[in-house]
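Batch 3, record 17
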Amino acid sequence: MKVDVEAPYRTRIRQALEDTDVRSAVNRAMGQLAERRERAVGAIDNERMRVDARAAREGAIRQLPNLLEEVERTLTENGSVVHWARDAGEANRIVVEIARARGVQSAVKSKSMVTEEIHLNKALEAAGIDVVETDLGEYIIQLADEPPSHLVAPVIHKRAEDISELFQERLGMEPSLDAAVMCDTARQVLRQRFLTADMGISGCNFAIAETGTVCLITNEGNGRMVTSLPPVHVVIAGIEKVVATPEDALLLWQAASRNATGQDVSVYFSMSSGPRRAGHPDGPEEMHVILLDNGRTRVLESGYADALLCIRCGACLDVCPVYREIGGHAYGATPYSGPIGSILTPLMADDMGATKDLPFASSLCGSCRDACPVRIDLPRLLLELRSEIVAEGQTSMAESATVKGLTLPMLGPRRYRWATRVAQRFGRLLGAASGYLSWLPPPLSAWTRSRVFPRPAAKTFRELWRDK
Amino acid sequence: MTKAAGEPARSATSRLRLPGVMLYPMLDPTHQPAGRKPRVALFVTCIVDVMYPDVGMAAVSLLGEHGADVVFPEGQTCCGQPAFNSGRRPDARKIAVGFLDVFGPLVESGEVDAIVAPSGSCVAMVRHSYEILLAEARPKVRERAHRLAECTYELTEYLVDVLGVDSTDGRSDQRITYHACCHLLRDLGVDRQPRLLLEGLRDEEVIDLEGADECCGFGGMFALWNADISTEMGRRKARHLEASGADVVAVADVGCMTHMNGILTRDGHRCRAVHVAELLAKSDDSPS
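Prediction for the assembled complex:
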C-alpha cells in the first residue's frame, strides 16, 4: 500500500512496511548507492576531507549574518536582484510576482529540495503558471504526483516497471523497461520545454559570498539549461547555503559528490554570477535570488546550529538501517527524510508536536554520524530533541509510564532489589519450559508480538556473587 | 597546607603546585607498579544482573584468570542509558549520579584501578554521554564523571588493551561469527579486541558476517516504540546470520543479544546469539 505522507506517523510506518514493491526498490537502490559511496570515499583521505568540509561549513554558519550581507552585496553588484523571504508563503509570493511582472506562462525547474520544502509548484500552478521539473527523477515524481523520497534520488522508491507504466500512461511511451528508451521519452518532452520556457527556477547548493555566485551540482545538464536558457532565472536558497569563498564551494562540491552519488565530482557544476551582461552571447536577462529563512534562524538560535551545516548529500540516509526499511515517505510531508530529516523537520516546523515521533525513529546506531561529510553528530542532536520533546510534555502517557516504570527502579539499590524480585516472580508466573516468554502485557507486548523475551534468571548476578 | 589569610582562591591546576615541587600529571591511569595486581570494580549492568547472571560470572572468571582482582560494589544499579536515550534527562541524571556515588570513591581512593562492564553500550554511556548529561552539574560531580570516564572499560577492551590478553582458555567446536554492536564499534572504537579473542576459540577463523556492523534493530526503547521497524531490522540480521552458516553469533552487548535471540528463536532459525564473555570463559560448546 502506498504511503500517505499526510497520514499520522504510525499509519505511515505501517503503510511503508506493507509496501513490498517499494521496499524492494529502496533496498536494491540503497545497496548500490551505499556501495558506490563507500568506494568513492575510500579512494581518498576521507577523514581529512571531512575535517576540511566541516571547517568550511562551520566557518560559514559562525559568521552567517556577515556572509549574508556580503552575498547580498556581491550578488547585487553582479546584477542579480536579491529578495529576502521569511517563510514559504513569502518566498512563493515573490516568485509569483516576478513571474507576473514578466508575463511568465511556463517555467522549468531544476531539482531543488528547498522548493519542495515550500511547495512552490503548487503556488505556481495556483497562479496559472505551467511548471515542469527537468531533473529526470523529479520529473517522474511530478508526473506521479508524489513527493520525493530521498534527498538525492527522489524517485528511489520506484521500480523500473513503475516508471515504465507511468510513462506509457502519461507520455504515450511504447512498453519498455529499457532505461535508455525511458530517458529518451522524457528528453523529447523536456527539450521542447527548455526552449519555450519563460522562466527557469533552481535551488542553490552553495552561494559564494566573496564572488556573488550561485552554484548548482547536477548530473544531467538540465540545471545548466534551466539557469541559462529562459529569459528569467530565479534562485531559491536557504540562508544557510552561503559559503565564504570559491575554494570552500569547490571543496564542498567534492564532499557532496563523493557522498551523494559516489562520483569524484558531479558531471556538471554550474556557477551563475548574475544575468547576461553587455556583449554576452547568452544567459538570462534577469536573475533573482531569494534568500529564505523558513525556520532556519530558529534552528540556529535554539542551539542546533550543527543541523545547518548539512549539505544535503544524503549519506546519512544511505547508511541508515531505519531508512532502508521504511523509505523516505514514511517520514511524512517533508522533503527531508532519514536521520537529518528527523532533525530538520521538527526543528523547522512551526509546531514541533506534529513531528515529535521522528527523533524517536532511530536506533541511535551512529552510522549516520560516521558517514556525515561535515561530521554532524546526528545521534546527539536526536537525543537533544528527544529530551526537549519530553520536557515539553509531548510524549504520550503510555510512553511516559513505561519509561518511568523501567527507569525508576534504577534510582536506588532498595527499589532496584524490590523491582528485581517482582521481575523474577513475574517471570516464574509466565515462564515457559523453554526459558522464553512469548507473551508480555502491554506495553511490553510490543516486543512479544514479533519476538520472544527471555525469562529473568532464577538467581540474579548479585545473588550468585554472594553465594560464591 | 593551610590557606593563608587573603590568599586568592586557587584554581584546580594551581593547587597541584607546591613551592619548589613539580607534580607530574599521570599519563597512563592504568599503570601499575610492578608486582601489584590490577584491581577492577565490576559494573555488571542491570540487564546482566537480572537476565543474564552467567555473563557476569563469566566476566568475573575471565578477569580473575588473567590476573585481576575483582570487586563487586553492591550499591550499583544502572548507568542511566535507557532514561537518557528516551529523553528523560532529569531521571537519567539521578541514576548517573548514583553510579558516580557507588564507583567514584573506589576509584578516587585507589581501591580499584578500573571499572569494567560486559557491555559496550553502558561503557559508552559513562565514557561519552555523562559529559553531555552532566554538563550543568556541580563541578565536583563533573570532575568525578570525567575521572570515571577515563577508567571505565568494556570487558574485551580491558582484557586486550590493559591486561594484554591475546587468548583465553575458552574452546568451542561451534561455527562462530561476530556481530559488531553499534555502540561498542562506533562509540568506543572496539572491534579488534573481541575478534582477536574469538579467534582463539577454535582453529578455524571466525566466519565473516554480511552486514556485521549494521544495527540489529534493538536500540533500547526503540524496540518498543518502533517495534515494527525494529523487528524488520532484526529479521534482516537473522537472514544474514542464516546465510553465514554460523551456529553462534558472538556479541558484546546483552541488549542486542536479547533482540537477536528474540527474533532467531521466534522465527525458527538455528543460530543463537551468545555473549563473548561466555564463549571465552568456558570450554563446553553448548550455546546458552
